[in-house]
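So, can you check what follows?
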Amino acid sequence: MRIKASVPRRLFLAANLVFLLVVALLCIAPFINLLAVSFSDKTAVAAGEVTFFPVGFTTVSYEFITNTSKFFMSLLVSLRRTALGVPINLLLIILTAYPLSKSRTDFRPRSLFSWFFVVTILFNAGLIPTYMVVKSTGLIDSVWSLVLPGALPVFSMLVVMNYMRSLPKELLEAAYIDGAGHVQTLLRVVLPVSAPTIATVTLFAFVDHWNSWFDGMIYMNQIEKYPLQTYLQTVVVNPEEFIRNNTDLSGNLSKYLSLVSARTTGAAQMFLAMIPILCIYPYLQKYFTTGLVMGSVKE
């Protein structure tokens, strides 16, 4: 039998729905405004005439950023970095989290290694020592300088470790009784039931590699080897100098100087950088909350 909601209950649900819609619109509005700015004339943007619809529709900001071979070279560097970095992150996270999820009787130095990794979150050697290590190992101007220094994200490892600790011991014992070793137990039992948490840290790793720009600025000496975010950052900071120094755009120098501004190119940059995240996030979103919550609680 269905119980009819009371009037106060229906009023509360209606007010709650309106409140959530307002919050959602407030979250979406800045992105709509950025999209409108990226397609608007720079004079209208400077005058503050652009809100949620383009004024003086133009795609010159996107042409300015993409009409050069360096853009596609930097895109390739970012794709290579992500293709290498995410699998390496996941491999090291899983290989580190699994033994640390064991009890002290099964893995006696567990506490020692756990504190070792926690200390790396609290303290950092600093930028100069890190650069000296990367340089001394010959990684400068290499894609590996963007991947190896952060090969093991400790926070993500702790999330996965806590989730593995929360798994029922009977599940693992059943695998051992059936003759499975640690490798088979990890591959056939632990990883399949850890899919939500693995998907969550995969999203973390992808976003971190795709959005990172500062390490590319430090470890790459040639603009042709910049990852996409580093390249776009140089474009947004000083677009006029970028145009003058870019031979691909030399024939259209006066055109771009008169039609683009730092704000319009900045908006275009944000949307170009967000496209891969917007494509991947919907597929991993259903695991995100579940994996994060389950991985943050332990018995």
Q: What stands out?
A: The longest helix spans residues 262-295. Residues 291-299 have pLDDT under 50 and may be disordered. Residues 61-295 form a domain with the MetI-like fold fold (CATH 1.10.3720.10).
